[in-house]
Amino acid sequence: MSHAHLTVDPHFTVGTIQRRLFGGFVEHLGRHVYDGIYEPGHPSADAEGWRTDVIELVKELGVDCIRYPGGNFVSGFKWEDSVGPREERPRRLDLAWHSTETNEVGLHEFSSWLDKVGSDLMLAVNLGTRGTAEALDLIEYANVPGGTALSEQRRANGRDQPFGVKMWCLGNEMDGPWQLGHRNADDYGKIAAQTARALRQVDPDIELVACGSSSAQMPTFGAWERTVLEHAYDEVDFISCHAYYEEYDGDLDSFLASAVNMDRFIETVVDTADHVKALKKSDKTINISFDEWNVWYITRFENVDKITGMDNWPVAPRLLEDVYSVADAVVFGNLMISLLKHADRVTSASLAQLVNVIAPIMTEPGGPAWRQTTFFPFSITSRLARGAALELKLDAPTYETTRHGVVPLVDAVATHDAESGASAAFLVNRSATEPLMVTVDVAQLGDVSVLESHTLADDDIYAKNTLDEPERVAPRANDTAVIAGGTLTITLPPVSWTALALG
Ligand code: AHR
C-alpha cells in the first residue's frame, strides 16, 4: 500500500475561515425556486408555500450567505417585476434558460425563506441589460429605511424595515459571450466601478463583488481580472471566480484531480489582484468571492437539456438536474479542501446551486426531498471546519493526469479552533484503484483523540442517491483511524473523501 505523510501544527495558520466560505446560490432556474424550495401544494408546505422538508435539509447542509437571484438569469431580470401584489406581477421571458418567469417569488418572499433557513442574502444586480440607475433603485428599495419613493414602496409592500443587504454582486459572468449584455473587460470595468461608487454613496457599509472570469479556461482569463481591477480596484472588495468540473470522456484520473485546477485558478487570481495592488500603490487587498463552484456536467446540458423554440417557454422545467455519484462527491469534497487551503484570500464562496439545479438537495413535486452524494462533504465540512485553516506539510506519492500534469495522490487540509481547541482534518485519496495509508503527525495538537470519522467511498464509485434509492450512498465511520504517540494513522479507500474531528 502507498503511504502519505502530513504534519498538522496549529501554529502555522493560513487564515481565519469565514463562515461565508460555506455560502450557497439560489437562481431562478429550472425547478430550483418553483417546485424546489417553493411548492404551495406540497404536503410539507408552510403557510407561505415553502417546503419545510427542504428547509430542514438546507439547515442541515449548513449554508451561510446565499447568492440570489442569478446567475445568467439576473442579466435579463427586472427586479421591480418581483415586488408588490403577486397577482399584478408580470410573467416574463427568461432568455438565459429559455423559460417563463412568473415572479411569484421575489425579493420579499425570498428574504422570508432566508429567515427560515437562517442565511443572509447576497444580491446580484443586473449589469447585462440594465445599468447603474436600476442598481441604485434596487438599493434604495432594499436598504434605505424610508422617506423616499422606493423605500416607501417597500414599506407599502409589507416590509417596514430595510432588508439591509450587505453583499452585492456587480452583474454576473460579464466575460462570457453567452451572457446577456456581455462586455469586454474595459467596458465592464468602467460600469462596475461607476455602479460600485454609486451604490456606496447610498450605503457605505456594503461589500461589493466585481465579476472575475467564468472559468480559468476563458480566453480572456488573467487579462480580464487585471483590466477590471485597474478600473474598479478602489471601489470593490472582491473579485469573483467561477468553476465547474466534470469527468470528460471517461478520464477519471484527471477528474479526480480537478481541485488542482481550482488551486491554480485561485493562486493566479490572487497574484493578478496583488499585481494591480502594486500598480495602484494601494494598501487595500482584494479578496476572492468564489461565488459559483461545483461539479456540473455542462456537456449534458448543452446536448440534452437545452430548450429552444419560439412557442416553448416552460415554467420551471427540469434543467441541470445532475445526479451525483460517489466520484463526483469526492471531487466536490476536494474542491472544499481547496477553498479552505486558500482561506486567507477566499473569504466568501457560494456552492452553485442548492436545490434540484446542480444541487446537493433534490425534490420530487408532491414527493420526497433527499440528499445527493455531494450533500455530505458540504454538511460535514461546514460543521467541522472552524477557526483557522492550517498550512500542512504534505508528503504524498504522485500520479500523472492528462489535464493537470503530475499531481499528488492525496490532498488534505486541517483546521483548528483556538477558542474551543477543536481540530479537524479533511483528506481525499485520488487513486482510482489503490487504498492509501496516511500518517499524520498530530503531536502539536496535544493529547487528542478521534472524535468523529466519516469516509465517503463505495465499491461502485458511480453509485448515486435517486428517488428510488435515496439513501444508497452515505459516509461511514472509518475505523482504521487511530492515534498513538502523537501520530494518527488512517487508511483511505480508493476514490474517497474523509473528514476527521479531533479533540
Ligand atoms: O449555475 C448555473 C450557471 O452557471 C449560472 O447561471 C451562470 O452564472 C453560470 O454560467
How would you describe the overall organization of this protein?
With 503 residues, the protein is an alpha/beta fold. It is 26% helix and 24% strand. The protein has an eight-stranded parallel beta barrel with strand order 3-4-7-8-9-10-11-12, surrounded by five helices. Helix 5 (185-202) packs parallel to helix 6 (223-232) and helix 6 (223-232) packs parallel to helix 8 (258-280). The longest helix is centred in the middle third of the chain and has 23 residues, at 258-280. The relative contact order is 0.16. The structure holds alpha-L-arabinofuranose. Alpha-L-arabinofuranose binds next to loops.
- Uncertain runs: none
What is the global morphology? globular
Reported for the largest beta sheet, the result is: 8 strands, parallel, barrel
Number of helices: 11
In whole angstroms, the N-to-C terminal distance is: 28 Å
Write down how many β-strands occur, each being a DSSP E stretch of 2 or more residues.
25
Helicity, as a percent range: 25-40%
Q: What gyration radius follows from the Cα positions, in whole Å?
A: 23 Å
Report strand %: 15-25%
Q: What molecules are bound to this protein?
A: alpha-L-arabinofuranose
Instruction: Please state how the strands of the largest beta sheet are arranged side by side.
Output: 3-4-7-8-9-10-11-12
- Chain-averaged pLDDT: 97
Question: Structural class from helices and strands?
Answer: alpha/beta
